[in-house]
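Q: What would this chain look like folded?
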Amino acid sequence: MAINKQVFASLAAFTLALGLAGCSSSPAEEPEKTDKPVASSAPSEKPEETEKAEEPEETAPATEGDTAAPGTTVAVGEEAIVSWEPSRMSTVSAHVAHALAAHTDHIFGVMGNGNAYFLDALERSGSVTFTAVRHEMGGVVAADAYYRAGGGLAVATATYGAGFTNTLTALAEAAQARIPLVLVVGDEPTSGPRPWDVDQIALAAAVGARTYTVGRTDAAATTIIAIEHALNFRVPVVLALPYDVSAIEAGEVPALPELRRPAPITIQGDVMHAHVTAAAAALTAAKKPYLLAGVGAWLADAGEALGELAAATGALTSSTALGRGIFPEQRFDLGVTGGFGAEGAMDLIREADVAVVFGAGLNQFTMRF
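A: My prediction, written as structure tokens:
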């Protein structure tokens, strides 16, 4: 197999460092002069010559394009590496890791007995970065933040029992904020709960997260279904790995299907046209129009269209905390609405005669003005 460039460079640098370490930058100290005779450490008689050890055959340094059969030794400078052939991903955990790796490049969490095989398979895949955190809740929070910052699908992992229960506060927040997140956790064995197990499905459901449990024959397919559910409904889901299933051989990884995503909603039918026409007429006739946008507008990438609408109607604008900055023109933007808004800005919102809301929920926070 071809030598990895990064490995080659690292070994070359390591060899150079060893060479430099053997060179002293300061002159050697001379022995202290003394009048006393110094006993010689050399033997009085010359020892008999011994046979020289057979020198190993020289091996030509490997170059970047060299290949070697699995199990053979390849010399690189003064070091040697053993080439290896990665084993096929054949366990249930490997199937899950393979399916997730196709849709994310980062995962956060804490390793434990319940997810050790999964993380090992994920590490062997080489395409996903795992960031270890100190607490399971921190893993879910980090994944949540990763999605909000534009990193893509949020993925976190924890072990079973207390490891899972530590994630619940962050999991509840992700559910309330509608964050598409996959939490991969260990779970009780299929034979039934042990003394330290808890009803993880019930606990996840209590905070608004559905659980998908993988089996020995459907691990990859179940993982894809869980990802689809998280992305299509914008909610967190739990992907459970039963303790006695995670390391079972499951055969070669099957071809992964494309994710099924719903088509964007378009204006179709007389009823939809009637609603849009009524909203346009109300904004046209309004004396003090007002536009409110939330995170849904961000997800729809509607900033430019909303900016054009605000300019055409002369409306004041504001957003929810998660939709902040969606309107491109800041001169007539009142900032965040509701409890986080400035008192003077909220007074102006109260004077509006027509308000149109885009991608935001109307609740005690957004309507606190």
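Confidence is low (pLDDT under 50) at residues 1-88.
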